[in-house]
Amino acid sequence: NNPPWPAFRGYHTYSFAYATMGHRLPTILSKAIDDVVETLNQESEEERVTDLIECISRMDKLKEDLQSQARLRPIIDDGEADVALWNKEIAKYFQGKDFMNAPWLFAEAYKYRRLRECFSVSKYWQHYDVFFRQKCDTFSRSGDAVFELSTRFLEPFKHKEGLSDAEKLEAERLMFMELTQICLWGNSTDLSLLINMTEEQIKSLQSTGGEHLAATEKNILGNDMARLWETMKNLKTNTGGRIDFVLDNAGFELYCDCVYADFLIQSGLAKEVRFHGKRYPWFVSDVTKKDWNWLLNSMVYGHLFPKATDEEMESLRRLGLRWKQYEKEGKWIYEQHPFWCTGYTYWDLHSEAPDLFLHLSRSDLVIFKGDLNHRKLTYDCAAPPSTEFEIAIGPMASAAGAPRICSLRTIKSDVVVGLGSDGDVLAEKLDTEEAGWKISGKYAVVLLSEGRPG
Ligand code: F6P
Ligand code: MG
């Protein structure tokens, strides 16, 4: 049940795995330790202080393990719902492996699970999020793009007077195409790659204007957006479908996802949207329930943008109120299945989390956001770029009950598929002309798999 291509591993010096395992992850851990030290310096209760110092010692040990090629040990039973899944996978496949010679995807996920353990076994700091400050801070520095969207999409979507049915449909199609791109490029701001971003860098990544989007569409190297629209249109005819988002990053990306989901509800394309987040801090900026609540409540009550006008603040507040209302009415539902925080790829989703597979199979469309989800869908292996998406995702396309899937991903790592029959040539050309094209987030894919009825 594995693909025929080798999975990337940390010791593959030609891949981004090498830089990630050897350099990026230790840097991320050092920054995480700095964050905990900042918290420690503001803590007054002795028991809480000493408890937190033990968390820091465990983080130091993890950093040492990471850098000294220590073997991957089982996860301590800290009561998390995923412990059994983790230890089963370690025992079955990764006995004796270390961070560099285990598959990159697994080793990287394992690091975040061990980081979780540093806190989950503590007495007072079980729910501490070492990335929370960073996530909030980046969103509060994203004001320009945030208000551009909130002022534009505040008024619910409605058609101009006197349009024919065909014109209405075309207006919806255009809006759908634009918002799909906004949702896609919202993925550029993941914090694991953009440590210490300047205000200018954030701005350039978040331009959302129409002209900009027309220019960026040519950077979508595998583009099934037209087919995606056909699918959505048919859902509307059937009184609106259920759409699932397997979320990626908190803050601005989540905000873009919600703008998109809002349009899907208002236009009648969807009647229910389910958002799938992580149970604990994951790959630096992934969404947890706390991030979700923080976003909605900051929009309604927050004072994050001191330079904003009253009108801008009001637009954000009203948008946030609408989204909270969707939650109350059950039109938006937030979920957090333990499987999303494991080291398994989605080739194993149907066998390792059959309840989740069944749940997703009832959806009309499951949108997977971002690079990590894409790596997990494709087994993070060296498949040729011309490989069809349906083939690259294995059982997620071919198993009975596989849902319809769309991957919205800006390319930030080695695996690239779905570029069409000329894809290998195109990738080779980019390899020679534009070093780093696979990790810059400048390019993207929007790939669709129809799934298989159960
Ligand atoms: O590939 C580089 C990387 O930083 C990985 O750590 C991770 O898969 C991914 O990018 C994070 O990006 P995203 O938030 O889009 O999943
Ligand atoms: Mg992420």
From TrEMBL:
Membrane-spanning intervals of the chain: none
CC annotations in GO: nucleus
Damage-control phosphatase ARMT1-like metal-binding domain location: 20-420
Keywords, comma-separated and alphabetical: Hydrolase, Manganese, Metal-binding
Name of protein: Damage-control phosphatase ARMT1-like metal-binding domain-containing protein
Family: Belongs to the damage-control phosphatase family. Sugar phosphate phosphatase III subfamily.
Origin superkingdom: Eukaryota
Obligatory cofactor(s): Ni(2+); Mn(2+)
Keyword 4Fe-4S: no
GO molecular function: inorganic diphosphate phosphatase activity; metal ion binding; phosphatase activity
Signal peptide: none
Swiss-Prot/TrEMBL GO biological process terms: DNA damage response; intracellular phosphate ion homeostasis
Function: Metal-dependent phosphatase that shows phosphatase activity against several substrates, including fructose-1-phosphate and fructose-6-phosphate. Its preference for fructose-1-phosphate, a strong glycating agent that causes DNA damage rather than a canonical yeast metabolite, suggests a damage-control function in hexose phosphate metabolism.
Reaction catalyzed: beta-D-fructose 1-phosphate + H2O = D-fructose + phosphate; beta-D-fructose 6-phosphate = dihydroxyacetone + D-glyceraldehyde 3-phosphate
